[in-house]
Amino acid sequence: MSFKSIIQDMKGELGSISRKGFDAKFGYGMRSRSHRVVQDSSVPVDAFKQSCWANMPPELLRDVLMRIEESECTWPPRKNAVACAGVCRNWREIMKEIVKTPEISGRLTFPISLKQPGPRDSLLQCYIKRNRSNQTYYLYLGLNQASNDDGKFLLAARRCRRPTCTDYIISLNGDDVSKGSSTYIGKLRSNFLGTKFTIYDAQPPNAGAKVTKSHFTRLINVKQVSPRVPAGNYLVAHISYELNVLGSRGPRIMQCVMDAIPASSIEPGGVAPTQTEFLHSNLDTFPSLPFFRSKSTRLESFQSGPLFGQKDGMLVLRNKAPRWHEQLQCWCLNFNGRVTVASVKNFQLVASPENGVAGQEHENVILQFGKVGKDVFTMDYQYPISAFQAFAICLSSFDTKIACE
C-alpha cells in the first residue's frame, strides 16, 4: 500500500471517528453534563481502539499527521487536522506540536488560534455579518475572495444595552452567546456616550495580566469553573473616539491602547504575548471558561479625559487619516478593493507615532474594517493583534457615537 493511500484511508477512518464523537458530544437527548462528558470520552476512544491505527509506531504516526496537516491548508478540508487532534490525548499532543500559530503559518486551526496574533507578513481576511433583528454579529474566515457568502464561522457577539453602558458578549458558539455559556471568551463594554470602550478577556492574555472586578459580582456555573484558572475580567485594550467637529460627515478619529501588547512587539525581533491553550480542568472536553456576571451598571475602569492617554510600554494604534477626494466628494482610504461602500464606520489602524516607530512599521495596516454590502463588513487583521481583539475593536465601530456625530 502506497503512503498516499495510507493517508487517504486514515482520513476516511478519522471522518467516521469524528462524526461519532460529534454525535455523542452534541447529540440530542442529553440529560446532564456528567452524562455528556461520559459519552464524550467513551465513543471516540472505543471507535479508535477498534481502528487499525491504534498501534501505529510513533515515528510513522507523526509523519502521517504532518502530511495531513500540510496537505489540508484551507477550510473546510482543514477539519481533518482538527479531527486528528480529537482522536485521543496522544494524537492531540502531537498535533499541538505540528500545527503552528497563525503568526507563523497564517492559518486558523483550533479555537485557541483566535486568541493568538495574526500573521506577520499578510492580512488575514475575514468578514462580519450583522443581524439587526437580534443585535448579533458573526465573524467568519473568508474562504472565497470573490464572495462573502461562504466562510468558516469563528466568533459571535451579542449587543446588550444597559442603563449606563452597552456590553458586547463574545462567544465561540453562534447559537449560545451569553456570559452563562461555557464558550464565553470575553466582552466589549462601552460608556453611555459610545466614545470609550474597554475589551476584557475571560482568561489572562499574558503572564502579568490583572483581573478587574466590580463591587457586585457573583460566580455563575461553579461546576464548570476550573480551580486552576483565576476567574474575572482581564483588561485587553482601551478604545477611544474623539469629538468630530464635522459630525457624521467627517471621518472618525479613534485610538486603541493595547494593554496586553507591548509597543516593542512591532519592532524588528519584537514578540507579542501568545496564549497556547484555553485553561480548563478537562483536556478531553470542550474548554469550560470562568466568568463573572456583574449586577452593577457602573462602568468598571473608564478613565476621564478626551483620551485614555499614552501608556508607557503599551502598543498604541490610531486610525489612518483619510484623504478628501474632490471628484467623489468624500473621504477615501485605500483598502485595496476590500471595501466597496462608503461609511463612517470604515477605518484602518496603524501604529501610532507615539510608539516611537518610524518607517515601514508605522505605515503597515494592522487592522482594517469596512462595509461591502447591507449588514456585511470585511475585517482584515495581522500581527500583533488576534482575531478576538480585532473583532472586539470592530464591534466598537457599530456602536452609536452620541458625542462624536
Can you tag this structure with a few keywords?
405 residues, alpha+beta, twelve-stranded antiparallel β-barrel, two-stranded antiparallel sheet, 17 strands
Protein model, in words:
The chain has 405 residues and is an alpha+beta fold. Helices cover 23% and strands 25% of the residues. It is built from eight helices and 17 strands. It has helices at 3-26, 33-49, 58-71, 79-85, 89-98, 102-105, 360-363, 387-398, and strands at 124-131, 136-142, 151-161, 166-171, 184-190, 196-201, 211-212, 217-219, 233-241, 254-262, 292-294, 314-319, 323-325, 330-332, 347-351, 367-373, 376-381. The strands form three sheets. A twelve-stranded antiparallel β-barrel has the order 1-2-3-4-5-6-9-10-12-15-16-17. The chain is globular, with a radius of gyration of 22 Å. Mean pLDDT is 76; it is low at 19-45, 214-231 and 281-310.
Secondary structure: elements and pairs:
Blueprint: H1 3-26, H2 33-49, H3 58-71, H4 79-85, H5 89-98, H6 102-105, E1 124-131, E2 136-142, E3 151-161, E4 166-171, E5 184-190, E6 196-201, E7 211-212, E8 217-219, E9 233-241, E10 254-262, E11 292-294, E12 314-319, E13 323-325, E14 330-332, E15 347-351, H7 360-363, E16 367-373, E17 376-381, H8 387-398
Antiparallel strand pairs: 1-2, 1-17, 2-3, 3-4, 4-5, 5-6, 6-9, 7-9, 8-11, 9-10, 10-12, 12-15, 13-14, 15-16, 16-17
Helix pairs in contact: 1-2, 4-5
Brief overview, please?
Helix content is 23%, strand content 25%. The chain has helices at 3-26, 33-49, 58-71, 79-85, 89-98, 102-105, 360-363, 387-398; strands at residues 124-131, 136-142, 151-161, 166-171, 184-190, 196-201, 211-212, 217-219, 233-241, 254-262, 292-294, 314-319, 323-325, 330-332, 347-351, 367-373, 376-381.
